[in-house]
Amino acid sequence: MRWTASGALLQISAAISSHLLISLIGRRLFHAPVSDFHCGMRGLSQEALRKLELRTGGMEIATEMVVKAAARKLRIVEVPITLHLDGRGRPPHLRTWRDGWRHLRFMVVLSPRFVLLLPGLALMLIGAVALASLAGGEREWLGVAFGVHTMANGAGRASRRARFGP
User: Fold this and answer.
1) How many angstroms separate the CA atoms of 107 and 114, rounded?
2) pLDDT (tens digit, 9 = 90+) per residue, 25-46?
3) DSSP secondary structure letters along 71-95
4) Sorting pLDDT into bands at 50, 70 and 90, what band is 51?
5) Residue 129 needs a FRET pair 20 to 30 A away by CA distance; which of 36, 93, 148, 166 works?
6) How many CA atoms lie within 13 Å of 100's alpha carbon, on the beta-carbon side?
7) HSE-up of 57 (CA within 13 Å, CB side)?
8) CA-CA distance, 103 to 148, in Å (whole number)?
9) Quick check: pTM over 0.85?
10) Dihedral over Cα of 125, 131, 132, 138: its sign
11) Gyration radius of the chain's alpha carbons
């Protein structure tokens, strides 16, 4: 968790969007034992750096480090730090909501369970319900008849796509 020195308090919107939302989602998706995904202080060995195989640049690299370290079961340790005022004399260049959205998109892309498995299971459930409803005979919906031919066509298309792609 980030500690703040006197006068270096985070803005409320930044704390909510970045710290709470992104870090909570990151912990849920990747089971990473980290309270703050965006803390800029990182320390790692050369061996760990090679194992991470980092690909991103910019702000997403902090998220990529935590996600890949958790996935590869590397040791992750948090050390409390004190956040001090930026002494560079210029306004902050970060945009809370835009940067938070970039991190959220990046985490979703890195989570195949969330991106592929859950939607796939939802579509499979919809198909199973539709198939079960047609088991009793032909049904009409919005003026279109659905029956045995619809089931065979859908099953054939699904198996073809599974083997050969779209």
Assistant:
1) 10
2) 878 888 888 887 777 678 889 9
3) HTT-------EEE---TT-S-----
4) very high
5) 166
6) 17
7) 0
8) 46
9) no
10) positive
11) 24
> Of 54, 85, 60, 88, which is closest to residue 72 (Cα–Cα)?
54
Query: Which residue in this structure is represented by tokens 């796509």?
Result: 161
| DSSP structure class, residue 19 | I
Phi, psi at 2, each rounded to 5°:
-80, 135
Q: Tokens at residue 125, please?
A: 């459930």
Q: Which of 66, 100, 80 is nearest to 1 (CA)?
A: 80
CA angle 117, 69, 23 (to 5 degrees): 70
Q: Where are the domains of the chain?
A: 2-110, 115-164
The dihedrals phi and psi of 139, each to the nearest 5 degrees, come to: -125, 150
Q: Which residue has the tokens 């031919």?
A: 149
Tokens standing for residue 68: 């890949």
In Å, the largest CA–CA distance within the chain is 74
Write the single-letter amino acid at 38: H
The DSSP string of 95-149 is -HHHHHHHHHHHHHHT-HIIIIIHHHHHHHHHHHHHHHHHTTS-EEETTEEESHH
Write out the two tokens for 54.
């980092």
Task: Tell me the one-letter amino acid at 161.
Answer: R
Residues 33 and 79: their CA atoms lie apart, in Å, by 12
Structure tokens at 51: 């194992």
